[in-house]
Amino acid sequence: MNTYRIDGLAPEPFAPLFALDDASLHAHGMRRVVADSPTGYPCRVSLANAAPGETLLLLTYEHHTDGPYRASGPIYVREAAARAMHFEDELPPMLRTRYLSLRAYDGDGWMLAARTLDGADADAALAEVMADPAVATVHAHNARTGCFLCAIARA
User: How far apart are alpha carbons 7 and 116 in whole angstroms?
Assistant: First the structure.
């Protein structure tokens, strides 16, 4: 029986943005960047790090829309990301290499728990917070930069 699932963001809303020139992107608070390392550019569609030389957009994304914890933050999207990746009872490898903040919410968007931890310890921390039946979703963030990485939903 599956206990959780992780879905990358749908690529369709982001695809037209890559056709905008840099001035238009900048006017909307977005930036076009080229990855210059294999680990610093985690794509929220593919849930994988961009390879050096890949083009991405850096933009603000509203990832929590309910209640007093409403939040948005920066995300990267790879131009080459054609489909959203899906994981069941398995964490994307990009989460294991970062210092994480896990924030657990109930079905009404109320925060129930929060943890900061090394990504290598994420399985145990996720199991701990998901043991509470009131937890509906957990948001994973890069704890150092605050970037939203993914939502982990109860299956």
Answer: 22
